[in-house]
UniProtKB/TrEMBL annotation:
TM region(s), chain numbering: 116-136, 143-161, 167-185, 192-210, 216-233, 240-259, 291-310, 317-335
UniProt keyword annotation of Transmembrane present: yes
Secretion signal, residue range per the UniProt entry: 1-17
Protein name per Swiss-Prot or TrEMBL: Glycosyltransferase RgtA/B/C/D-like domain-containing protein
Species, as recorded: Bradyrhizobium guangdongense
């Protein structure tokens, strides 16, 4: 088994090394609108500090964004109303539509060398967690599953993560949140501080992509339903701690929306981006033909397996992923726009959670036959 661990460890290291070589050669002028918009947010943070939350087009008085658009041959570079990724607000401002988190992370690195370090840092975090999973694995099946997940996660940092600068930090946070979620659920005594930290991380992820707010759906279910069942103070406090963590984590986005859109609850996205859900067979078909479908199958299959074969705490982790997958897949499968990374965050959060939940099971539970030991009651989820 040590040889298998070593083999998978070397595979993960080889993939991350290959990724780093490829990422170090990436340019920052691919001609993609999203790229230069995230870089504009980063530039604002580097110029104004926390004042960079204000993305009003008039703040481009140094012509940074205009210069970026000239580089990609954008015809209407002089007209802020025509700027990509910007929308007019009722106040008359023309502002960036994206939340500020991705731009903030890019701003931590020197201008002109921002993208590659962001991707490399996220890849290294994933590699460390992948190797940690291999170290924790104590049976051959768990070594293989941990190794495959680790190699897959690192591989995805090139494709499809390259499609958007918001994906790499989301991927890294999902992996860390998956580990912490398993640590929380696999204990008999559930820590309030730990669930608050998980909420904080999921809230922070909203600062990279607004749809990341859906990543918390399953958590609210397993924290809220037991409270309705038991009405105990302990379940209420855990739910309150998680909700407070989410709120604190997404505070930068709420502040940015207050500054740019006039209200913390108002969106900076245009009407064309805020659409009603609709089931479209064409969009559904695109998911079936995409790598994301493989991730969905893996996440659903791993959830079903852990529900059937896991011990009580592990089944509770699987119940959480059931709620999370249902909400997130339901949203994106009825979203009229398809991209190659929409369901990557929820599938990877689910897989990391399930993988670490399996690894943290007592050894005898992992070796036991897949027999249900005791029915899981939602009322006993938070202990």
């Amino acid at each position: 088994m040590k040889a298998v661990k070593l083999a998978f460890g070397l595979i993960c290291l080889a993939i991350v090394a290959s990724d780093i070589v490829a990422m170090s050669r990436w340019g920052e002028a691919r001609g993609v609108y999203d790229d230069i918009c995230y870089l504009r947010q980063a530039h604002l943070f580097q110029r104004f500090g926390i004042g960079g939350l204000d993305t009003n087009a008039v703040r481009d008085d140094d012509h940074y964004f205009e210069g970026k658009m000239k580089e990609i041959g954008f015809a209407d570079w002089k007209d802020p109303i025509r700027w990509p990724c910007h929308n007019p607000m009722p106040s008359g401002k023309v502002v960036l539509q994206y939340p500020p988190g991705t731009g903030f992370l890019l701003a931590l690195f020197p201008e002109g060398h921002q993208v590659a370090p962001l991707y490399i840092a996220a890849s290294l975090i994933l590699c460390v967690l992948a190797l940690s999973g291999l170290v924790m694995a104590r049976t051959l099946p768990s070594v293989i599953s941990a190794g495959v997940l680790g190699a897959l996660a690192v591989y995805l940092m090139i494709n499809p993560a390259k499609a958007s600068y918001s994906v790499p930090p989301t991927m890294a946070l999902c992996a860390v949140a998956g580990l912490l979620t398993s640590l929380w659920l696999m204990r008999n005594k559930r820590s309030v501080l730990l669930v608050a930290l998980i909420g904080l991380l999921l809230g922070v992820s909203v600062n990279f992509r607004l749809p990341n707010a859906l990543l918390a759906a399953g958590y609210f279910l397993i924290l809220g339903l037991p409270f309705l069942w038991t009405r105990s103070l302990a379940t209420f406090v855990r739910g309150l701690a998680f909700g407070a963590g989410v709120l604190v984590g997404m505070a930068p986005t709420l502040a940015a929306q207050a500054i740019n859109a006039g209200s913390a609850l108002a969106t900076t996205y245009g009407s064309a981006d805020v659409v009603a859900p609709v089931f479209d067979l064409a969009v559904f078909g695109q998911y079936l033909r995409d790598m994301q479908f493989v991730l969905i199958v893996l996440a659903v299959g791993a959830t079903a397996w852990l529900l059937a074969a896991g011990e009580e705490h592990a089944r509770q982790a699987a119940l959480l992923t059931v709620g999370n997958l249902a909400f997130n897949l339901g949203f994106f499968m009825t979203h009229p726009i398809f991209t190659h990374y929409y369901v990557v965050p929820i599938t990877m959060l689910s897989l990391w959670t399930l993988s670490f939940a399996r690894l943290l099971q007592p050894l005898e539970a992992r070796e036991a036959a897949p027999v249900r030991r005791k029915s899981t009651n939602l009322g006993v989820l938070p202990r």
